[in-house]
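This follows on from our talk about sequence and fold. Go ahead and set the record down below:
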Amino acid sequence: MKMLNYIKEYFTGAEIIIWSVSSAVIILSFCIFDRENYLTLLASMVGVTSLIFIAKGNPAGQLLMVIFSSLYAVISYNYSYYGEMVTYLGMGAPMAVFTFISWLRNPYKDNKSEVKVNSLSKIDIVLMIVLTVLVTQLFYYILKFFNTANLVPSTISITTSFLGVYLMFRRSPYYALAFVLNDIVLICLWILASFDNIQYISVTVCFAAFLVNDMYGYLSWRKMKVRQNQN
């Protein structure tokens, strides 16, 4: 009962609806197209839950993202999407840990459940561009060496993922837009995988749900920024 009261008080009605609908669609798609790989279902549920916390600027979302990244890396490995495996295990999970620490160190008015929204400086933007180019080039050759399936979209996924984690670490609302682009790329990747194995439709649906959550995340962070600046 206390947990239900906490959820009602902490999350808005829109957030509860988004999480509930996302979870229902994920479970339904799993029951229709998969019914075997419970690891995919677990990863999807952890993922959408992490995103609703991240949309509120809550550091707890980053801890859930570490778990999701680890689970998703295993799923990607099973389909030879080594780019996704390396991205989430070698970059997504570690950056989620760093972001968790950064958010705890930068709370909004001593509220550990809400991070202080940041504005990017010109140096941040230049550094972001330089690092993104370097990371993209490096991983392109790594993925090519391992004969990664669907090399080009896999490389684009790394680019958008890095932009997302960098902006999230810097506490910028634009992290969500970078992940929106990443979600679109991943939807395309897993649609291609679904042609070989229909079970991967459930993964495609997972990232479609992520797309909606990240779009909401951007709107939520913009509102947070306005509210924090007014106060």
In short: The CA atoms of residues 71 and 181 lie 21 Å apart. The mean pLDDT is 91. The radius of gyration is 17 Å.
